[in-house]
Amino acid sequence: MADSSGESVREKPLVVSLCGTYLKAEMQSIYRQISNLDAYRTVVFAERIENRDAFPFEPVVEMKRQERPRYRGNFLLRFWYKHVAKQWPPPRPIGHVGMEGAYYDPYDLVALIEKWRPALVHVYYGHKAVKYRRMLAEAGVPYLVSFHGVDVVKFMDDPEYVQGLRRVFGEARLVLARSESLLNRLEELGCPRGKLRLNRTPIPLGSFESRPREVPADGGWRLVQACRLIEKKGLVTVLEALPEVLDRWPKVRFTICGRGPMEGELRDRIKSAGLGDSVKLVGWLEQEELRQLYGESHLFIHPSELTEEADQEGVPNSMLEAMACGLPIVATRHGGIPEAIEDGKDGYLVAEKSPRDLAAAILRLLGDGQDLMRFSEQAARSVREKFGFEEQMGCLEASYAEAIKTAAKS
Q: Which of 134, 173, 368, 397 is 20 to 30 Å from 4 by CA-CA measure?
């Protein structure tokens, strides 16, 4: 490759972005990382491809399921010829003569890695790294893995899975997580602290217009929550807190944005509690629609809570985007939320699973116009200081560089 003067230009290193699905609707933050790398090229490998219109990117390669067995023992020969003898393709066929115990790789990941020859693989989600671990080892490619929240609790009751996860910790060059609380959890699970790196969500703050919030003259407060409709988002707690808020401010309207398995239950609860005139479920909104709703609202609510399965949040993306728009926050002391919200500065933090505390915090903010405006301005300021897009993409690329460098030395 050469520039206009004819001098050689070194091609950017290639990183494989490896994920189960490219991409579910709620994976906007992953798309931002994949599509905004500067010092690296990337190709996406995925088991399933969805929502290409919402997440345009090239190249995206759909992995194929394997129909023929791969044989134990191939890995050693492949490693010898690729990394020791430096003869690839090998000078002779690598077969299974004298080797017993055939097994199946679920996908053609090894062949794809050999074809694309990446410098590094970034596996999105810890449980996917466990699934792909043996194939990545067979391919002899360095990899790092990023954890996002649910993957620090998923399958933890399965001893075989936990063993696989610890092998991932040993084999991965680096292990990334979206919040300090997730890093601490990964260390508890056995990941060496020296491998852990913070990988905060990059928020394109330039696309979010911040404006100070003002007290509505008619008491028509607009509250909003945007999330996947699942237990850990604390949606039931909000519905249980709302009647107390409505007693003081009957014109309050609460909008819930998102889809998920709890939608039917939430509709039933709204109806049985007589909240149909005050609560609206609007489904999944595109970014422009969501920004418009944020602009019309006065307060963002996100009372995340630990589930019985110990599922916890990192730092919710929707909350960061709401802050960037200048929305004060009422949330819980849960997971990575306190890393983004300072109680009494950007909003209020309350205990998990406490409708009474949540209602009191909402009423406190709605009753103080000065705090409303102060929190609004500070939320927009602090999210830009902590979660700036360029800074977080730079941190991700620094992790790539470190992983590639350590692999070259080994």
A: 397
